[in-house]
Write a structure and sequence with these properties.
The chain has 2 domains: 211 residues, TIM Barrel; 69 residues. With 330 residues, the chain is α/β, with parallel strands linked by helices. It is built from 13 helices and 11 strands.
Length: 330
């Protein structure tokens, strides 16, 4: 039996992270970080499978937006991830209270696996729904897409990239079909954590969904991940692009955030995700995204005045990419 126990305060994780290529400044946790229910779920932030809990005490945040406003105020400027949600949302209301507080604060918001009761109406691009993949559910691989579309919210489908499973061409085609059927704007392949516990959880998730063969075990535990993942990721991106799906989720837009700032940040995030120049270059790009997210001015106006190069503290190469996006802003 699951027991929902009121938490002492609104739970927040402060610290930068990346989910499916998009930068996060922090995370709100209305029901804690772990999945609820009997099945495995893939956490796209920690990039590992977690086994659902069917018998647990779940810390439940307040159903009043005010404590969540205080929690949001402690997070540095930039997008905020909220979730995952819980089946008791309709009764508890903690997820929706956190969503309302974050949107009202002007933050760009990503909603991770919301229950239908937690999906806001009329939020537009201020909130983007992230639907993580559920193993063994071909007809409903990405729960939440339909509800997001009904609420008028952009939505993204996220799946772990797994050789011998989700990275195989037949499965990729099925995932693309499921994402398109649900109205997703994107389908993102997330490279899972490759440490020992991460690999063991992958095999356990496969065994729970279907029989895990010896070949699958060898691919996961003994495969050359850097080489294999680079090849598989490129093929996955190409298949999604051919089907009209972006490889990255839409970027959430905070209310009042200048359009140019959003476009420039999104462009640099996309470069960080798709470039083959290594982790150091990606880290520089995400540092530039952080600088843009924290900028107090409309950077498109700064660029029109010819002053962007004077204030942007990164290389000319990165600056030129940002300026091109700023110039395209309405």
């Amino acid at each position: 039996m699951i027991v929902y126990e009121p938490a002492a305060s609104a739970a927040a994780r402060i610290g930068e992270a990346v989910v499916a290529g998009r930068r996060l400044a922090g995370r709100l946790l209305p029901y804690g970080p772990d999945p609820i229910g009997p099945s495995f779920r893939f956490d796209p932030v920690d990039r590992r499978f977690r086994n659902g809990r069917a018998d647990a005490v779940v810390p439940t945040g307040p159903g009043d937006p005010e404590p969540w406003r205080e929690a949001v105020a402690r997070i540095p400027e930039g997008p905020v991830l909220i979730g995952p949600c819980a089946p008791e949302e309709e009764v508890r209301g903690a997820f929706r209270a956190a969503v309302d507080a974050a949107i009202e604060s002007g933050r760009p918001v990503y909603l991770l696996d919301p229950d239908p009761a937690g999906v806001p109406d009329g939020a537009g691009g201020a909130a983007v729904v992230l639907c993580s993949w559920r193993p063994g559910r071909a007809a409903a691989a990405f729960p939440g897409l339909v509800e997001a579309k009904a609420a008028g919210l952009p939505a993204a489908a996220l799946v772990p990239l797994l050789p011998g499973w989700t990275a195989e061409s037949q499965e990729v085609n099925a995932l693309i079909a499921a994402a398109l059927a649900g109205g997703a704007a994107s389908l993102s392949a997330v490279v899972p954590a490759s440490d020992g516990p991460g690999r063991r959880a992958i095999v356990e998730a496969r065994e729970a969904a279907a029989e895990a063969t010896d070949r699958f075990f060898d691919l996961i535990h003994h495969g050359d991940w850097p080489v294999e993942m680079s090849r598989r990721l490129s093929a996955f991106h190409a298949a999604c692009t051919a089907a009209g799906l972006s490889p990255l989720p839409p970027r959430a837009v905070g209310r009042g955030t200048p359009a140019g700032n959003v476009r420039a940040a999104a462009r640099l995030e996309e470069l960080a995700e798709t470039s083959d120049r290594g982790d150091h270059y990606a880290a520089l790009l995400h540092a530039a995204v952080r600088w843009i997210d924290e900028a107090p001015r409309d950077l498109a106006a700064v660029a029109r005045e010819g002053n962007f190069r004077k204030v942007f503290p990164f290389s000319d190469e990165i600056r030129q990419e940002a300026e091109a996006a700023l110039a395209a802003a309405p």
